[in-house]
Amino acid sequence: MRLTEDMQRVVREQALGFVATVRADGTPALSPKGTTSVWDDEHLVFLHIHSEGTMANLATNPHVEVNVVDPIRRKGYRFAGHAETLSQGARFEEVLGRFERERGTDRRAVKAAVLIEVTAAHEVISPAYDDRSSEAAIAQRFFAHHRRLYDAAFTAGGGSQEVAWRDGYEISTDRRRLDLDVVHGFLRGAYWSRGVPRDVVERAMEHSLCFGLYAPGGEQVGFARVVTDRAAIAYLADIFVLPVYRGRGLGVWLIETVLAHPDLQGLRRFELATDDAHALYARFGFAPFRQPERQLVIERVDDELYGQRA
Length: 310
Prior knowledge:
Blueprint: H1 5-14, E1 17-22, E2 28-33, E3 37-40, E4 43-48, H2 52-60, E5 63-70, E6 75-86, H3 90-103, E7 112-125, H4 135-154, E8 162-166, E9 169-172, H5 180-187, H6 198-206, E10 209-214, E11 220-228, E12 233-241, H7 250-260, E13 269-271, H8 278-282, H9 302-306
Parallel strand pairs: 12-13
Antiparallel strand pairs: 1-2, 1-5, 3-4, 4-7, 5-6, 6-7, 8-9, 9-10, 10-11, 11-12
């Protein structure tokens, strides 16, 4: 059979195939091959560098299956075919030459090449698509998942910046993803920050623990920030969900995610201010000050601060 353009694209992009063979005793064997590639529109190829088990299996049974899947899009292909081992001759040298040119492979490390004549191929699609999620939504979700894993393993302090996802929506504390236009665009019209200048919002975000809420397509649709010393005190500010996305429980989820953040646990005081959402925040334990007579504040109204700059 002939490999379609999309089949070839997936194999070339991923360069990692999981090769299934059969041992002499009939038991299955599966081995990842990071040299999996397209040879032509009818053949796949991989190199034998440290694949003694796979090569022994192919010597007794040349039937093989190769799965190549994009872990972000959660789509790929399953290829079945017949394997031919090359360890010398003009074709082997041709394979070595191509890998040397295209991937910088050291030919001295290659013991053999396996050329697979593909006889059947089937598309592999994750059940994640069963709810009719778009490819963009699935990709956003699993890109975030893999970035969380990377951050946890390699970011200083071992902390992941990605916080939560649900039904294709995502909440992230990665400040690099925040859309200042969206945040400022909402806050300059909000009753608590009317007319606030863009540079003030930018500075506030820079010095806060920020939570961005993102729709399945990746656009920012909500925001919250916490001013905190991460030890004793925190102040929840500027929390919103854009009007068109309200009524889906996203605001409640955003509050839950903020309050569950590991840097905001065990605080002596967690404050906020609201004109009209007392009942909502009461669900999360927020209440009036026990001794309001002890609370003092220096407070300036928006017109005093931003009236000339709006």
